Amino acid sequence: MAFGMHDTSADTDSEVMNEINMTPLVDVMLVLLIIFIITVPVMKNAVNVELPSATSQPVSAKPETIQLSVDAQGGYFWNQNRVTQAELPALLQAEAGKNPQPDLHIRGDKAARYEFVAQAMAAAQQAGLRKIGFITEPQAAASGH
Known about the structure:
alpha/beta; Nucleotidyltransferase, domain 5; elongated
């Protein structure tokens, strides 16, 4: 039997087969694909590097939160304990040295002058505290009036 020819014993008139057999082409392409899939990861990891080892344990120590309140007369309260303006920088400096640094929440009275709140903020920044936040009350829902 010749390539591209039908079997002459089964068919009396010899016709040439006019379709290309795709099976060998598909087989070769699949073999090449498998070879590339195997060799590409090997080529990417050719350089030997010693990676550092690390443990992945969650940090259990949460930083504490310090409440610094400023009343309407300009008085300072450190976690509900009254402190003077002269004592405030030393307290802030001591907290800034801790690891992890605590969060400082400043609560300013609505009637307090901005100057007192700004002084507390400046003292915290000079002490080196990085996490400073302001605490406010949410506004009441508007009534239908």
